[in-house]
Write a structure and sequence with these properties.
Strand content: 15-25%
Distance between the termini: 52 Å
Keywords: Ligase
Pfam families: GH3, GH3_C, GH3_M
Family: Belongs to the IAA-amido conjugating enzyme family.
Number of helices: 20
Largest sheet: 8 strands, antiparallel
Shape: globular
GO molecular function: acid-amino acid ligase activity
Bound molecules: adenosine monophosphate
Strand order of the largest sheet: 9-10-11-16-15-14-12-13
Radius of gyration: 25 Å
Number of strands: 20
Oligomer: single chain
InterPro entries: GH3, GH3_C, GH3_M
Structural class: alpha+beta
Number of domains: 3
Length: 604
């Protein structure tokens, strides 16, 4: 990948994609050869490879690992030892993953050229979109992007989230002007370390440019929704700023202030009136609610872009509510370990989204999850050690089968289990297209039951149907294994709003409805859960605790105050921190329990 590849546009980018996917097998092999050529002399690889760069030997001898397998090496480099412990090229920074090990964040190695790889993938997105929605280069994008503060390792290397690294890089600041890169947000606002000011300035900039915004988005749907809800509560401040032509006192960071002052330029009562009318009104048929507000505020927006798959899928109804029919688009799949791929059919429904892994970004292998999805069990469920011989190459995965993604990167991860479960939905040329199923990281367990994120999500879908039939929307949820009761039981914290009378209306809670939600969730949980509950009696009735509006924002604030990043933030689907639990419990409006045991029969 050379400098030329950084600025792919239109046709050229699409041709490149065709070539890459047509030769996925050859490209994967040459990527692995290149990684071995560069890194076989590292301490880590030479233990297994003894200097060899033979691809078959690699697949036979190098173990499949989780973070624990590489953590000691990473720690040594963070403490000052040479990068050659794991990488043939200097490690320039560590990327803080949202995955944790033993409560600690995971640090992923990164080398200078990784920024080229990330930029390369970003530059493919708009040419793909432009095939379906032309003319996107004729206006601006309101992309709400956030950084978080970074730290230095004892050896002086930066450790920060991957998006912070990217937004602070010259690859982002020196992106070609115009074309698809014209953002409403001033760079000063994106780089502002104060998340609230950053959000305020970016929303204000989006409103100022409302007539030329062609697309809206954030990296994760959660950050976008948080911003919309902030606007919903504080829109009069934005109107006042636009009317006076001066940013409000919340904008105190000097560089943000000067950027926003320049952007506001002069009092604009016309624009202020427009925004005021839209935010205060809503149409009669919308019940004067914020339903469809995004379409009214940004009338030329052609799509809303955010990650809406995996744990973000729960935000789809809320974004549909605010979006008023603007298509929701998921464009890419990436992580701190490695960027993976793109969605070649970006206008597909979020529930149908597939990602095509790009064979030149890293070496990808797949651990088959044998009885998945029928029985939702892992191939080697409780085993730490996975036989490397079980792994399948990128082009050899089978349609319909589920796999855990395993990566080998230039920066020094070798056969590393990412923890994501993917299902093969089809192929584009030789390259498989994957549906993101879940991340293997959330497990509720009280007895022999084990509930992962995907199981929980299925339960939520069942219960959501019941609340939605009453014009209520489940906007956020998390769970907790309450083992203080005897027997222990699952607790779900729910934040719900009324869609009929506007998002901020206080709703009355019908016990019958919420009891039927409890049982709907339990009925859709796993066989073992239902057996524990109905036969073994080792689990008590599932409980739903409905919390006050804004509780999950307060939860997000809590995690951010403890060092989390706003744009990598994902609501934890299971709470294990005492602080977070205290916060949730302090805001409970009402509790409801399953009125009877879930259906269970020994024959499944
Ligand atoms: P992080 O390492 O904190 O950047 O988080 C990366 C993880 O976020 C991935 O391993 C996935 O579990 C999740 N993720 C990233 N992109 C997507 C996507 N498009 N759909 C679903 N989950 C995603």
């Amino acid at each position: 990948m050379d400098g030329k590849t950084l600025e792919y546009k239109g046709e050229e980018a699409l041709n490149e994609l065709e070539k890459l996917t047509a030769k996925a097998s050859d490209i994967q092999e040459s990527i692995l050869k290149e990684i071995l050529k560069r890194n076989s002399a590292t301490e880590y690889l030479s233990k297994y490879m003894e200097g060899s760069i033979d691809v078959e030997k690699y697949k036979k001898t190098v173990p499949v690992i989780t973070y624990e397998g590489i953590q000691p090496y990473i720690q040594r480099i963070a403490n000052g030892e040479d990068s050659s412990v794991i990488s043939g090229h200097p490690i320039t920074e560590f990327l803080i993953s949202s995955g944790t090990s033993g409560g600690e964040p995971r640090l992923m190695p990164s080398i200078a050229e990784d920024l080229d790889r990330r930029t390369y993938l970003y530059n493919l997105i708009m040419p793909i979109m432009n095939q379906y929605i032309p003319g996107l280069d004729k206006g601006k994008a309101m992309q709400l992007l956030f950084v978080k503060s970074e730290m230095l390792t004892p050896s002086g290397l930066p450790a920060r989230p991957v998006l912070t690294s990217y937004y602070k890089s010259p690859h982002f600041s020196r992106r070609a002007a115009g074309s698809f890169n014209d953002l409403t947000s001033p760079t000063e606002a994106i780089l502002c370390p104060d998340a609230l000011q950053s959000m305020y300035c970016q929303l204000l900039a989006g409103l100022i440019h409302r007539h030329c915004v062609l697309r809206l988005g954030a990296v994760f749907a959660s950050a976008l929704l948080r911003s919309i809800r902030f606007l919903e509560r504080h829109w009069p401040d934005f109107v006042a700023d636009i009317r006076r032509g001066i940013p409000g006192s919340i904008v105190s960071d000097p560089s943000c202030r000067s950027a926003m002052t320049a952007m506001l330029d002069a009092p604009n009562p016309l624009l202020a009136d427009e925004v005021q009318r839209i935010c205060s009104g809503g149409s009669e048929e919308e019940g004067r609610s914020w339903r469809g507000i995004l379409r009214r505020l940004w009338p030329k927006a052609r799509f809303i872009e955010a990650v809406l798959t995996g744990s973000m899928a729960q935000y789809v109804p809320a974004l549909e509510f605010y979006g008023g029919g603007i298509p929701l688009v998921c464009t890419m799949y990436a992580s701190s370990e490695c960027y993976f791929g793109v969605n070649l059919r970006p206008l597909s429904d979020p529930a149908e989204v597939t990602y095509t892994l790009l064979p030149n970004l890293g070496f990808f292998e797949f651990l088959p999850l044998v009885s998945w999805p029928a029985r939702r069990s892992w191939a080697k469920e409780d085993e730490e050690v996975v036989d490397g011989g079980m792994l399948v190459d990128l082009v050899d995965v089978k349609i319909g089968a589920c796999y855990e993604l395993v990566v080998t990167t230039f920066a020094g991860l070798y056969r590393y289990r990412v923890g994501d479960v993917l299902q093969v939905a089809g192929f584009h040329n030789q390259a498989p297209q994957f549906k993101f199923i879940c991340r293997q990281n959330v497990v509720l367990s009280i007895d022999s039951d084990k509930t992962n994120e995907d199981d929980l999500h299925k339960g939520m879908i069942a219960a959501k149907k019941l609340v939605e039939s009453r014009d209520l929307l489940l906007v956020e949820y998390t769970s907790y294994a309450d083992t203080l009761t005897i027997p222990g039981h699952y607790v779900l914290f729910w934040e719900i709003v009324s869609t009929a009378n506007g998002m901020n209306t206080m709703i009355s809670l019908d016990p019958k409805l919420f009891e039927s939600c409890c049982i709907a969730v339990e009925d859709s949980l796993s066989y073992v859960y239902r057996r524990c509950r109905s036969k073994d009696k080792s689990l008590g009735p599932l409980e739903i605790r409905v919390v006050e509006l804004g509780t999950f924002e307060a939860l997000m604030d809590l995690f951010i105050s403890q060092g989390g990043s706003i744009n990598q933030y994902k609501t934890p689907r299971c709470i294990d921190s005492a602080d977070a639990l205290k916060l949730l419990n302090s805001r409970v409006r009402a509790c409801f329990f399953s009125p009877h045991e879930p259906a269970w029969s020994p024959n499944m």
